[in-house]
Amino acid sequence: MRILLAEDDQQLGYALKAGLEHEGFIVDWVRDGSAARYEAGNSSYSAIVLDINMPLMNGIDVLKNIRKSGNTTPVLMLTAQDEVSAIAETLDLGGDDYVVKPVEIVVLAARLRAIVRRSEGSSSNDLTLGYLRLSPKKHLVTLGGEDISLSKREFALLHSLMISSGRVLTKEQIESQLYSWGHEVESNAIEVHIHNLRKKIGANYIRTIRGIGYQIKDVS
After folding, report:
1. Least crowded by CB within 10 Å, which of 30, 61, 137, 215?
2. Residues 6+ apart with CB under 8 A from 189
3. What pTM value is reported for the model?
4. Cα four-point dihedral sign 48, 53, 59, 62
5. pLDDT tens figures, 71-85
6. CB neighbour list of residue 59: distance below 8 Å, 6 or more residues apart
7. Which domains does the chain have, with CATH numbers?
């Protein structure tokens, strides 16, 4: 799950990025509101985390811009104790949730999973496709009740495919969900991950749509 983190405080931003990556998220971190507005409009994210007080453009104005453009990506606002009066405004403007700093990483991660889940119309974190089950919270995959050991990239790939079950994902869309900025992606990296994933969950689950991308399907 790829998210955009907008936080201008260097120490806090680094800690949030590292903590969320430990929780299994792919994180792009920007340090001002102008950059947040640009990335929200030009990249694909499962969720966006916006600090309210940022240079160049504050989080409330970024949120306004995101919603005005028709972007419905779930947005979670970060607020300090003395900014709680802004919470109602952000929720009325289309913010999906908020947390007050300082925040525990496990709480922030849980809130992010919750707003993504709501945006997808699901009441459960777990994704199920036939005998295949994926739990983002536990970072666990089972097939017919048996645990399947996946690498971080394989887990993220399977998560992206299962969230989009029934739809075809292009190679570019998959790359955007598996890699944050600064990662050099080998030309055949996605094909390698698909190959390894098929070996672990069964070749029939993932269908190759030649010239387009990949699709996951129920084979039970």
Report:
1. 137
2. 175
3. 0.69
4. negative
5. 999 999 998 866 667
6. 6, 33, 36, 50, 51, 52, 53, 77, 78, 90
7. 2-120 (3.40.50.2300), 127-216 (1.10.10.10)
